[in-house]
């Protein structure tokens, strides 16, 4: 007496699609950006809170002085970009987990992409175009910070 097993209706493991495995690269990005963000965030906190006078020293002049140095501009922009992309990718994963493929999922992912893109663009513009001493009319000169000449 021989027992035979019927052929399965579908393969146990579907054939791998050709092309880029975006889920794998998203997973790798989350791990790598998380490690880099730890360094960037603790460096940011150390410079802003430990070095100098701590929280009481953080004001408009402190930020203006910090962003006068291109190193700190790039540090903050890198932190901004990595954090926003990291967060948007995490939210994309949650959308994938809790919604069915279709219109709702596409709309939510599109909204995530749009929000992240707008915040990245606006944040980058703020950091690189920040001018603590903008030109003002003579009657508004008293609104300038003390370190700006009228």
From TrEMBL:
Protein name from the UniProt record: Succinate dehydrogenase, hydrophobic membrane anchor protein
Pfam families named among the record's database cross-references: Sdh_cyt (PF01127)
Keyword Isomerase: no
Subcellular location as annotated: Membrane
UniProt superkingdom: Bacteria
Keywords: Heme, Iron, Membrane, Metal-binding, Transmembrane, Transmembrane helix
Segments crossing the lipid bilayer: 28-51, 71-89, 110-130
Source organism (scientific name): Agromyces humatus
Broad class of the protein's primary localization: membrane
């Amino acid at each position: 007496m021989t027992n035979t097993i019927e052929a399965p209706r579908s393969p146990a493991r579907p054939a791998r699609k050709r092309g880029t495995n975006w889920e794998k690269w998203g997973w790798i990005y989350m791990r790598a950006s998380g490690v880099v963000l730890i360094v960037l965030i603790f460096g940011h906190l150390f410079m802003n809170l430990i070095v100098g006078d701590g929280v009481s020293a953080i004001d408009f002049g402190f930020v203006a002085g910090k962003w006068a140095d291109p190193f700190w501009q790039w540090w903050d922009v890198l932190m901004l970009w990595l954090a926003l992309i990291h967060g948007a990718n995490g939210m994309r994963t949650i959308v994938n987990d809790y919604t069915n493929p279709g219109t709702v999922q596409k709309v939510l992912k599109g909204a995530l992409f749009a929000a992240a893109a707008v915040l990245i663009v606006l944040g980058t513009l703020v950091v690189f175009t920040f001018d603590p001493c903008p030109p003002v009319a003579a009657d508004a000169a008293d609104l300038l910070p003390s370190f700006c000449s009228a």
